[in-house]
Amino acid sequence: MIRNCSKEVLWLTIGILMMAMPQPVNGQFFKKLKKQAEEKIIKKADKRVDDILNGTKGAGQGPSTQTGGTNQTDKKTIDQNTSKQTTNISFDDSEYLVYKSPDPVFRDIVIQKFKGLPRFGAIDAYMMRDNPKKVDLSKEAAEKRNLTGLGYTGFAHLVRIHMLNEHFKAMDRTALTQQTKGKIIDKEAKSSLAQKVLKEFAFDMGTDALKKEYFMNDWSGTGKSALVREWGGHQADDFTENERYVTFVEKYLDIILKWSEDFFADGSEDFQLVHAIKFQGQYDFDKGGFWVRLPIKRPPLGAISAVEYFNEFAPKAPYGHAFYNKTEQVEYINGDVLFKMSPDKAEALINDKSVLLQLTMKVRSVFKDFDTGNPFVYGANYTYHFLDPILELYSDAQLTRKIGEINLENLVYKGSN
After folding, report:
1. Whether the Cβ atoms of residue 49 and residue 207 lie closer than 8 Å to each other
2. Dist CA 107 CA 58 (whole Å)
3. Helix, strand, or coil here: 183?
4. Is the C-alpha dihedral spanning 222, 224, 225, 231 positive or negative?
5. Distance CA 193, CA 77 (A)
6. 97-135 per-position pLDDT tens digit
């Protein structure tokens, strides 16, 4: 029993990590693993998460924090109804940012937030609070993984849809576009890509009922046939495939396009970018602190939550330019800077097994352009820059235990006098 439970939670965790990573940089192995994880997490989430998200119906626009009415409390209770049982799940309202779905056939976009902004980069994976190396096996933690895992996936889908607004204008609404051999036709390429992105959004963020209607070929008539990422379902004929696509477009495309306007509305979005970091070496008694490698110009391996938005650092403020220019020099290329801390606090921190160092920074991501190498594949480029020179360091994934700050306007670099 424990072994099976651990395997399920492992797939859910991998699902969150892989689903949020940008497709172009993962390689074939990650694509296969991502696909397997998506299928497993979605199957597990469909029956349980639908009722969580559908419990907050309404055609709201833009992001909003869930509240419990006029007498808001510190905890939010969600009624989760299934055919077998009713379960109450409690969580802290301050954890989430909610982009409400304009139609109940689609799930709300629920992602983690920090200081009122979307939290991206290293998110809270809901590990054991006293040992962040171990997975929390509780049902509540699993529900949160499902909720936010699908939320980050939906966020990325809607950003893509909004960024591809010109593609959707060119998209054929009356039939699926077939790629012709030979010379690439721009309108066909745009239509094909838009249709692909729309299908992925519909399958990932649609409720179980919607997926049964558009992605199931119910040969048996029992309603239990496989759901696949193809219009009409498994081995549907061309007529059924086109009919399901056209019907979906007629009902929902304009609603989805309108909803997508809330994501990178003017081509940019503000985030709290979080990085899991480590101290570089031992405590430096001469300098009175630890050396920290700022993951700004080179995001660390293993970073999650759509790092494509933060691939290129393009500073705007003077302190951003100063950091960039300094780390262009060979002796400072790693970007190691001093994080001051007293010896007694440093000793207590090192001995605390629950510590997971998290560096937060307020940034703005800006859409730059599209890759033009393959017009049938979505490849968007973004830059990012700082909105605040103060970086905060926390010792926990929830970002509740602040241990200090790093001021980009007053950095001490390793190796400098």
Report:
1. no
2. 11
3. coil
4. positive
5. 40
6. 999 999 999 999 999 999 999 999 999 999 999 889 899
Q: How far is CA 137 from the centre of its chain?
A: 22
Under 8 Å between Cβ of 390 and 405: yes
Note the pLDDT of residue 79: 32
- What pLDDT shows up at residue 18? 43
Element holding 29 (H helix, E strand): helix 27-54
> Given the DSSP bridges, would you call strands 380-386 and 312-313 parallel, antiparallel or unpaired?
parallel
DSSP alpha helices (H): ranges in 206-290? 208-214, 238-260
d(CA 167, CA 189): 9
Q: Summarize pLDDT for 170-194 with one digit per residue, the tens.
A: 999 999 998 877 788 899 999 999 9
Backbone angles phi, psi at 264, to 5 degrees: 50, 55
**Coil/strand/helix, residue 173:** coil
Predicted pLDDT at 181: 78
CA distance 412 to 406: 10
Contacts of 307 by beta carbon, 8 Å cutoff, 6+ apart: 21, 22, 120, 121, 299
Distance CA 353, CA 326 (A): 35
The whole-number pLDDT of residue 218 equals 85
Q: Give the mean pLDDT of 4-31.
A: 43
Looking at mean pLDDT, say which of 16-30, 204-218, 303-317 comes out highest: 204-218
Distance CA 270, CA 365 (A): 6
